[in-house]
Fold:
Amino acid sequence: MASLDTKNEDLNSLKMLSSSEHWGNNQLPIQFMKELNIQTKSTKNNICIRDDTVFKYYEDTDTLLIYFAKATSGVIRQSREPNDYTLASYDGDDKIVSFEIWEASKLLCCHLFDTSEMIDNKPPLSLYPICYEDRDELEILLIGSKPSFITFKKTEDKDFEVGMNDENKIVTLLFHNVSSRLAKTLPEKEREKLAEEARLRSLEDAKWDRLLLNKQDEYRQFIQHHHANTIPTKMP
Structure:
């Protein structure tokens, strides 16, 4: 496949990926299929695609966001940074709902243009959510062919590692203990309940914010009144 050069004027017409939802690939990469085909018939097929994974790319913030479940209002309860360039968002059971990578165009091994062409010798983003059922792991492979050399770097979250190629670019994300650590989309009724609970919390927070502001105003008025009525003592 030919590679376009970013200095080439042809790139002026190219757009980045849109911020709409994109589904992960629903088939294993050809590389994986070939490996499965050479296994004996008695070998258990324990590699499959997680078919409910979607992603978005936000060009204005250069952020790649990956969703493992629908993040409707109230589903996400907290967020933490596993390292300096990623953010994981968790539900009320401390399961990962979504995952984002900052400065994606600089850190990923692939480009983020809306084209299947190679650009500056970088392949396009082609997200494969690959489940290893016997190991209870999920690998988010970002390109169609897995390099032979990958260095996995641990993060603050013991169940998450980042896979880097020999150019120190992100190739893959590896999640361990996925059956207990990754969220699944809740039924609509449960999501509606969480959304209502989130709305009530927001109203309660707004109420306390108003009370705090009123108290601060009362205190400022008291101080101003106190200073206005204080007569300076003359020195003898």
Notes: The helical segments are 30-37, 104-107, 178-181, 188-228. The chain has a mean pLDDT of 85.
